[in-house]
Amino acid sequence: MSFARSYIRTVDAVNFRIGRIMMYGIFVMGGILLWSSISKTFFNPSLWTLEMAQFAMVTYYIMGGPYSIQLGANVRMDLFYAEWSDHRKAQVDAITVLMLIFYLGVLLYGALSSTAYSLGHYQNEPFRFYWGLLTGTEEIGRLEHSATAWRPVIWPIKIVMVFGFFLMLLQAISELLKDLIRIKGGTV
C-alpha cells in the first residue's frame, strides 16, 4: 500500500505540474494563429503558421490529457453513475480504467512505431531500433518530413505523442490504484 500511495503522489504531482503549464499552451496556439492572420493581411503569408498551430494543438491536447484524467474531466454517462455509492463507483471505474490502460498501451505502441518510422526505421520492430540507437548498432535514417510547402520534420511532434501517451498511461495506472484502494475501503 505504501508503494501504491507513493506512486500515486509522484505521478499525480508530475502530471499536475505539466498540466498546469500546458493550460497556457492555448495562448501559444492563439499567438501563432494571430500572427498568421496579421501576416496574411499585411505581409506575405507565412508558410509555417498553420502547421505550427496544429503542432501546438496536438501538444496542448496530448500533454494535457493526463491532467484531464487526474481531474476526472473526462466525459462519463451520469445516468446511473451519480446515484451509485462510492464503493460501486470505484468498482466500475476500475473496470473502465483497465480498458483505458489497454487502449493507451496500443496508442503508445503505435506512437513508438510511428516515431521510429519518422526517424528512418522502416521495419516492423521499433523496440529493436530504439535498442540499437542506445547501443550504437542502429543509426537514424532519412527523416520523415511533412508533405506541406513548409516541410518540417515530423519526429519532434511524434516524440511529444510518445511522451504524452506514456504520461497518460502512468496516470491511468494511478487512477486504477486509487480505485483499488477505495474498493478496499481506504482513502487516497
TrEMBL record:
Pfam families: DctQ. It is found in: Cell inner membrane. One of its GO terms (cellular component) is plasma membrane. One of its GO terms (molecular function) is transmembrane transporter activity. The keyword Transmembrane helix applies. It is a multi-pass membrane protein. Keywords: Cell inner membrane, Cell membrane, Membrane, Transmembrane, Transmembrane helix, Transport. The chain crosses the membrane at residues 21-43, 55-73, 94-112, 153-173. Part of the tripartite ATP-independent periplasmic (TRAP) transport system. The complex comprises the extracytoplasmic solute receptor protein and the two transmembrane proteins. Belongs to the TRAP transporter small permease family. This is TRAP transporter small permease protein. It comes from Ahrensia marina.
